[in-house]
Amino acid sequence: MSEATFDYIIIGAGTAGCLLANRLSADKSRRVLLIEAGRRDDYHWIHIPVGYLYCIGNPRTDWLYQTEADAGLNGRILRYPRGKTLGGSSSINGMIYMRGQARDYDHWAELTGDRGWRWDHCLPYFKKHEDYHKGADALHGAGGEWRVERQRLRWDLLDAFVEAAQQAGIPRNDDFNRGSNEGVGYFEVNQKDGWRWNTAKAFLRPICYGRPNFEMWTGAQVKRLRIEPGPDGGLRCVGAEVWTGREMVSAAATAEVLLCAGSIGSPQILQLSGVGPAPVLRQHGIPVLRDLPGVGANLQDHLQIRAVFKVRGVTTLNTLANSWWGKARIGLEYALSRSGPMSMAPSQLGAFTRSTPQQPWPNIEFHVQPLSLDAFGEPLHDFDAFTASVCNLNPTSRGTVRIRSPRFEDAPAIAPNYLSTPEDRQVAADSLRVARRIVAQPALARYQPQEWRPGPQYQSDDELARLAGDIATTIFHPVGTTKMGSDDDPLAVLDAQLRVRGVAGLRVVDAGAMPTITSGNTNSPTLMMAERAAEWVRRAAGATAA
């Protein structure tokens, strides 16, 4: 590992990186290196679905980022989990399979000037790697690597919430992935037979490990990209400097470098390499190779407001998991049938609707859980309750990711700037009213729900927006920090094929490339983008060879 040359170097073995490694190493004539800063995914809690509780906040599997103090959250600092292991965030996330809405991709096509990003063009790339539990149809694929299953549980309380949502005017929806996700129903998940299905299992094992042209380095962190003058007088990325934990290694790429370190890691690496906003780079003594103001700008995330309601006469996970017999029952059910609470995604039930009737499309998403706690990672409450977390699907607030120093070991400064626009504060207030309207329906009356948080005494827009700042937290969907865009967009870091503007041989393939956040969970859209990028890289190699 003192010096190595490959055709392709993929930085980050997360959601996008694992798929790219699979697709590019299929060409036996091309040598592929996959670099991952974390360790292998051999930690048992990665694979048990409820194990996200033990992976988030654990240095074994999480980068342990934190946000800056956020004015929109009344000065609070949030934990900001990002996966640091094979599979990346697909090894610690909520496992929810969600594409978003067709209009998300049609909007990307407008922003990039490339019709290839429209929903009808993206759909085949979702289907290509999908293995849908109901089999293939016009909108789903079967036989691919990415398994999508029903959840292996049900709760009386959640069934009642579905009925209450319908009484409140939200239609039933048993498939959120057909272009319009409006409605209420149980989420489908990336699991296989009750185990988490991460991208390392799906795309690396066993096929990549058996390919002689594939090499993988784990526990290896990229210090910076190697960017040099190209033969045409411009800049070209020719590799990366990598710290293996023992030595600094120079890895060379003769074709392309694919940066897949995520919405936080990719802008950090670019800035450390001299690609980014010139004032930020100069502040830290980094030579400016390419002034791209959009690197680390445009950060978007889904902020979930956790409304909690106490209930009576129904079992929730609060009381079930707070007793020795309940824990024994949970463990036995999972051991015998891979079902029950240990097979749970963090959120089991979803609802997509409009914060007000005037909204032209569903603009809020509920994640409903038969449990409650003060904050993620804290103990469950000692009373029965459920949580109806709600997020603004299309926030207008924008944040930043900026390096703190020229040291690659130092985490960047993450400033989401939540609730920093009047539009976002209004949607926050309105979405809490939607939660109250659902809970007030007859279907839930038998459980006598009482609003515990934020509290029924808060009614005005200003009160609800301020309380949202007190109780809201990230839902772990950062995107947009290396966005693609049209030639006349001054913040566009990438072109429509995810190539870094002004630096040949370099693409960014992760959620940071999204110009706007999708209307739902972001893992599967990232896989779709990687599937498209793999095709472009192969075509470019063919053109070069020709």
From TrEMBL:
SUPFAM superfamilies: FAD-linked reductases, C-terminal domain, FAD/NAD(P)-binding domain. Residues 83-106, 262-276 form the Glucose-methanol-choline oxidoreductase N-terminal domain. Its cofactor is FAD. FAD binds at V222. The keyword Kinase does not apply. Belongs to the GMC oxidoreductase family. This is Candidate choline dehydrogenase. The gene is betA.
